[in-house]
Write a structure and sequence with these properties.
The protein has one domain. It contains 17 helices and no strands. Helix 8 packs antiparallel against helix 9, helix 10 packs across helix 11 and helix 13 packs across helix 16.
């Protein structure tokens, strides 16, 4: 943290003002929901509808990384006594995430109606599905925030959103699998040192699905119930996914099925790419008793680029999230001890898609982080 940031954090008036400004900056996280309608309008106005159908990936992975560099980083942390209780009690932050879920459900239906009626070419149609899928992938981040909470409204809203992108198993596996085994060989969502994204992805698909079912079956078994019992929450979430797929198929035929499955594929892949970069090469040390050390901020990559952080509800403060999983997004903190990514998530996703470039940039950082403990790299 710079001396300027330290000075600001020690001045309660300035800190309060900056936190208030940052509060409303989180409205930027609603931008993905508005992008498809805005881009469609621009495409119709210019006659370049097929070009603008690809607008969401251009904005998310092209324009936002540039703005990240221009706006810089934000290491301001709320004061635990003066700010955190007030910020947690403000319903604004909760309304934002719950509203996101409802808006995405509407966007999904609207996106299908547009695909069925707009004069897209094949390339434009693919671009439109990719654009809606990226919004769905960002929605998984919102679901991630919600499923970590205690209240039924938030956890069910998170499960509902995950069902809309055909990845409801994440609700179970992430909470009971990933957060338990993160940064160990037992975790399906922690990438290894020198592992490429394309080696990681197929393993993540299979292991996350299987682990989710296994964990839910174990939960039910402890209650003396069968894995196929109606209280298996995965059955309900998967049934919801099938119901939505069936509804799209009945209403729009093969195009409806292709749209729903296509946007789901893009969304879940975006999630797994983010999983890949969040823990790449980081390992919890194995203790003499055979257990792994407690999860801390040093076991997740952190990034403090301001724009991407408010765009993603502070997901980039992933180090604090794993150390204190129930903390709400608005009060997640920056930790200097955490390893730092060289750029925001939007940039890092693009780098991960190019393994030689990814390894050239990230491997030296992992090696430097474990200097003197090179055995950790194995």
């Amino acid at each position: 943290m710079s001396a300027n940031h330290i000075a600001l954090s020690q001045d309660p008036v300035r800190r309060c003002l900056l936190l208030r400004l940052k509060k409303y900056s989180f409205l930027i996280a609603m931008l993905p929901l508005a992008l498809p309608p805005l881009l469609l309008e621009a495409g119709q106005a210019t006659g370049w509808i097929n070009l603008f159908a690809w607008g969401v990936p251009v904005v998310v992975f092209g324009i936002i990384p540039l703005l990240d560099l221009m706006l810089g980083q934000d290491a301001l942390n709320p004061d635990e006594q003066a700010d955190v209780p007030r910020m947690i009690s403000e319903r604004f932050y909760q309304v934002m995430t719950l509203g996101w879920v409802a808006a995405f459900a509407v966007l999904l239906v609207w996106g299908m109606l547009v695909l069925a009626s707009a004069p897209f070419s094949l390339a434009g149609s693919i671009g439109w599905v990719v654009s809606i899928g990226i919004v769905g992938g960002l929605g998984i981040n919102v679901a991630h925030e919600l499923i970590h909470k205690d209240g039924k409204l938030e956890t069910r809203a998170g499960g509902f959103l995950l069902a809309l992108v055909s990845y409801a198993g994440f609700k179970v596996e992430h909470l009971r699998g990933h957060h338990v085994h993160v940064s160990t060989p037992d975790d399906a969502s922690s990438s290894r040192f020198n592992q490429s994204l394309y080696n990681f992805l197929p393993q993540a698909y299979v292991r996350n699905f299987v682990n989710a079912w296994r964990l839910e079956a174990q939960r039910l078994q402890r209650k003396g119930l069968s894995a196929l019992h109606w209280r298996n929450e995965l059955i309900w979430w998967y049934a919801l996914t099938i119901a939505v797929l069936t509804a799209f198929s009945l209403a729009f035929g093969w195009l409806g099925a292709a749209f729903f499955l296509g946007q789901s594929f893009i969304a879940l892949n975006l999630l797994e790419i983010v999983n890949y970069l969040e823990h790449y090469g980081l390992h919890r040390r194995k203790l003499e008793n055979g257990r792994y050390e407690r999860t801390g901020p040093e076991h997740s990559w952190n990034s403090n680029y301001f724009l991407t952080n408010v765009f993603l509800f502070h997901l980039q403060r992933h180090s604090d999230h794993h150390a204190y999983a129930r903390r709400r997004y608005q009060v997640l903190r920056h930790h200097e001890v955490a390893p730092q990514l060289p750029a925001g998530y939007a940039t890092m996703v693009v780098l991960a898609l190019i393994p030689p470039l990814w390894k050239k940039i990230m491997n030296p950082r992992v090696v430097a982080y474990y200097q003197g403990e090179e055995d950790q790299l194995a």
